[in-house]
Amino acid sequence: MVPENLNLVPFVSVENMMDLVLEIGIDTFLRELAEFIEEDFRRWERFDKTARIASHSADGVIELMPTSDGRLYGFKYVNGHPKNTRSGRQTVTAFGVLADVDNGYPVLLAEMTILTALRTAATSAVAARYLARRESATMALIGNGAQSEFQARAFAALTGVRALRLYDTDPSASRRCRRNLADVGLDIRICSTAEEAVEGADVITTATADKQYATILTDNMVGPGVHINAVGGDCPGKTELHRDILLRSDIFVEYSPQTRVEGEIQQLAPDHPVTEIWRVFTGVAPGRSSESQITLFDSVGFATEDFSALRYVRSKLSGTGHYTELDMLADPDEPRDLYGMLLRREAQRREPVEA
């Protein structure tokens, strides 16, 4: 039996996404989303994998991130334009689509600006559970832009982090971050320098936005046993860590062909050894192996994470009402009569309107 209304596709707007997240609860959403992300990384070999398709300009980048597990196909459209804040726009915006591989019909369209922030944070925290020391309780968060609160919430919800040290070149960003996290139960201190923020930190998260080679962390700022969660360096020509830090660290990545072009490791030789994180999640490769080891998650974001996020959102929609149905697909009663569908619409337009 062919279902009715094949033309309608569930759409999760920004307002609906916020309502869905809040109804589930931010911490629960992050924990459950993390489970989907880890589950899909454990199925790594089933996925189509390709580095994202990027269109770069002097001011930013526009990217498409596709993947499929053979049953569902997903992609995300996302931009990164650091100068946008000057005109009151977001640095990053995104939307995503999930489709049925068997027939090619979309089954979900969703905003992914908020969802990307959540999935990036959830991925960071999942990786940290394998790479940071078990007793890690203090995180330095350098770069207090739109991603910062999500990173803090994820690490609080999924790991043992209970203290946060904030630093940003714009002190108002740190004050906003502390204010937004006031009720989360974290011990939060605003620091005047990056050096002050990382002193005594078990985890260092860098999440800056400028599209340039930068040195947010120098080698002398990173001591033994630290886990570095490098989030901000995510395109060619954009880095945050001094090269010497990379040479002292065991480096973990999502998809090495993409990260070698976009991540911190673009500073290293093309054959420098790195470990893809799925190998750690499945037990094929070790994560942290000693208390003194410096671990680095060189996170640039990969399409399977967006796939997981869309798959999770779809699983939570039923019965919530947090979506609308969009008339997206031309689907005539007779599949070969697309032109006839247009003629029938023309006839409807000519019908007189009752008073």
TrEMBL record:
Native species: Pseudorhizobium endolithicum
Source organism, top-level taxon: Bacteria
Stored NCBIfam families: PRK07589.1
Keyword NAD applies: yes
Pfam families per UniProt: OCD_Mu_crystall
InterPro entries to which the protein is assigned, alphabetical: NAD(P)-bd_dom_sf (IPR036291), ODC_Mu_crystall (IPR003462), ODC_N (IPR023401)
Keywords: NAD
Keyword NAD: yes
Protein name as catalogued: Ornithine cyclodeaminase
